[in-house]
Amino acid sequence: MKAKYLLSALKSLRGKRYIHRAGCPFHLEFNEILLTGYFSSVGEAIEAASIAGYPAEPCPFCCEEYIHKRNYSFLRGIVTEPVPVTESDFETPDVFVPGAYIN
């Protein structure tokens, strides 16, 4: 099902514009709207905005589930990547560093 998405003219702190779903309480009426369209996901709306020359990011309030999915897939990729381990990772250092002991 396609939903209506709006591209706000106001920039975020990162310099990107927010994509809002229609009816978002954080997209105020007096904000200028640069692009509108019906898309099946927020990702498609972000792609359309970037093709039009506007770097965009999803609104953290009305597009919350998209952000959670994106972060989950990103973190899942970090956790499942193999970590290269060499023998030097387990060697004892040649320099003795005395510790502080309290008796």
Would you kindly provide a written description of the structure presented here, covering whatever features stand out?
This protein is an alpha+beta fold and 103 residues long. It contains 2 helices and 4 strands; from the N terminus they run βββαβα. The chain has a 4-stranded mixed β-sheet with strand order 3-1-2-4. The longest helix has 17 residues, at 64-80.
Number of H- or I-type helical stretches: 2
Strand content of the residues, in percent? 15-25%
Distance between the termini: 70 Å
- Computed structural class: alpha+beta
- DSSP strand count: 4
Fraction in helix: 25-40%
Q: What is the helix/strand order? A: EEEHEH
Low-confidence sequence ranges: none
* Shape category: elongated
| CA-based gyration radius | 23 Å
Average the pLDDT over all residues and give the rounded result: 81
Brief synopsis:
With 103 residues, this protein is an alpha+beta fold. 26% of the residues lie in helices and 23% in strands.
Structure keywords:
four-stranded mixed beta sheet, 2 helices, alpha+beta, 103 residues
SSE topology:
Blueprint: E1 3-11, E2 17-21, E3 33-39, H1 42-51, E4 56-58, H2 64-80
Parallel strand pairs: 2-4
Antiparallel strand pairs: 1-2, 1-3
